[in-house]
Amino acid sequence: MEDLEGELGAMREYHDGGNTRDASWRRAQLRGLLLLLLENQAEIFSALQQDLGKHPAEAYRDEIGSAVKSINYALHHLKGWMSNKKAKLPAVALLTTAAIIPEPLGLVLIISSWNFPIGLSIESLIGVISAGNSVVLKPSELAPTCSSFLARKMPLYLDTKAVRVIEGGPAIGEQLLLQRWDKIFFTGSTRVGRIVMTAAAKHLTPVTLELGGKCPAIVDTLSSSWDKKAAVERILGAKFSACAGQACIGIDYILVEQKFCSALVELMRVNLKTMFGENPKQSRSIARIVNRHHFQRLKSLLDDPKIRGSVVHGGFMDEDDLFIEPTILVDPPLESAIMEDEIFGPLLPIITLNKIEDSIRFLKSRPKPLSIYAFTKDESLQRRILSETSSGSVVFNDALIQYLADALPFGGVGGSGIGKYHGKFSFDEFSHQKAVAWRSFLVDFWFRFPPWNGYKLQL
Ligand code: NAD
After folding, report:
1. Active-site positions, per UniProt (predicted)?
2. Ligand 1: residues whose CB is within 6 Å?
3. Which atom of ligand 1 is nearest the CA belonging to 191?
4. Burial of 264 (0-12, 13-18, 19+ CB in 10 A)
5. In degrees, to the nearest 5, what angle opens at C-alpha 74 toward C-alphas 70 and 75?
6. What does 99-147 look like in DSSP terms, one character per residue?
7. Nearest residue to 139 via CA among 119, 158, 155
8. What is the pLDDT of the chain when averaged over all its residues?
9. Which residues contact 14 (CB under 8 A, 6 or more apart)?
10. CA 290, CA 345: separation in Å to the nearest integer?
11. What is the distance between the alpha carbons of residues 397 and 231, in angstroms, rounded to a whole number?
């Protein structure tokens, strides 16, 4: 960071020299990312264990495996993404051919989050590199082992003139935001998202903001016991086994009919025991809270006098181990902090309703979430959710699975984010779609040029 402007100047010069444009360069970098993940699996497992207490199985599913899948998808589709797309023109453009040609945006800044410190960084890099850009990645300082791993290892696998990692916290982030970028891709909180967008405005830099919010899960009174069991397993898996609820698309709270609530809680209790045993603190299958600050934040949500009496399961905490037991609450007041703020931890409030259809009005009265989940086979309820609510994504009868879908755009709407990525959507997000037309000199319509007269108007 001693001579940031000089270093960025050199990166820009390298980029402007066309060094990152060829498909061969892009492929080599994507393969570099792949090798980085595959050859350093043990070190990544250990870094994720150290920063977040993630079990290797969870780390593989959420960070290495998902990124490997995305890299292979990009390698497979790169040629098609990079190709010019022919465009049809109206008859007035006689003897003209036209195409949309994707071109790299230039120098990109990625500011990333700590909850999936490897997976989220790599996923955004895939799009940036596929589109032929140069990039500076600033991982989150709150996952320091993973951040240092990326800073040490990426130069061994990628073109250091075009891809750099700069480590640091908010102060470094602010310094980076003072520079001129051709695109800023940010993953994090709404608060910092605003800071990023304000800084970007100075240079009219386009931004992608991958933010958070409260993702609800509507749970209908499923009739078969098979469906109920599957729904509960998927809910608990999505809430407690993905970074212990510290996930932007994790389930924040549940909406359920009053009459089904106690049966649902009972099913959850049974399945929690299967997943995390009698004493979840001994289980290696649940990640830890990232640091004391976030531990205290979550503790204060539970200590809130407004929610007294609503905890029906769990509630055990151990600050030294940064452990919070999977905790279920029923009907905490809607004006309590746990129902107003994004929880981002293993606390799961259940809000009861008279009728499951009331969930639509409930969701419409709140900010647009990153995802809405609905466990229901009722097609009319599904249709109403799709047509009457707005969210980054909707998933029926599962949760988190949309993150793996390269063919679906991943991103928020309203307060949950701006822009989208994954697969071709990433390539497009980091490309400029240049409109190009080639006109023949052969013929033309005489009436499209002055001098104007009434006859030309009638034509
Ligand atoms: P955060 O906003 O505190 O930090 C995100 C990044 O911004 C970090 O790299 C941090 O160092 C940097 N930063 C912080 N202050 C800055 C400043 N003043 N100037 C420049 N950079 C600054 O968020 P977090 O705690 O890392 O992540 C939690 C939030 O991120 C949650 O709201 C969660 O929902 C959201 N999130 C969203 C997604 C998504 O894909 N939509 C994924 C993960 C997390």
Report:
1. 210, 248
2. 111-115, 120, 138, 140-141, 169-170, 173-174, 177, 187-189, 192, 195, 210-212, 248, 342, 344, 370, 412, 417
3. 2
4. buried
5. 120
6. EEEEEE--EEEEE--SSSTTHHHHHHHHHHHHTT-EEEEE--TTSHHHH
7. 119
8. 97
9. 20, 134, 161, 162
10. 10
11. 7
Q: Which helix (H) or strand (E) holds 96?
A: strand 96-104
Signed CA dihedral, 133, 134, 140, 145: sign only: positive
- Give yes or no for a cis peptide into 170 (omega within 30° of 0): no
Q: How many CB atoms lie within 10 A of CB 95?
A: 12
The pLDDT tens digits of the residues spanning 169-190 come to 999 999 999 999 999 999 999 9
Q: Which helix (H) or strand (E) holds 156?
A: helix 144-157
3-class secondary structure, 369: coil
> Tokens representing 261?
């609530």
Other Cβ atoms closer than 10 A to 79 = 10
Q: What is the pLDDT of residues 358-386, one digit of tens each?
A: 999 999 999 999 999 999 999 999 999 99
- What's the one-letter identity of residue 117? P
Q: What is the DSSP string of 60-73?
A: IIIIIIHHHHHHHH
Annotated catalytic, 243? no
Which of 335-368 are b and which e, b meaning 16 or more Cβ less than 10 Å from the residue's Cβ? Answer: ebbbbeebbbbbbbbbbbbeebeebbeebeeeeb
Q: Cα–Cα distance between 426 and 416 in angstroms, integer?
A: 18
Residue 186 Cα to ligand 1 middle (Å) = 7
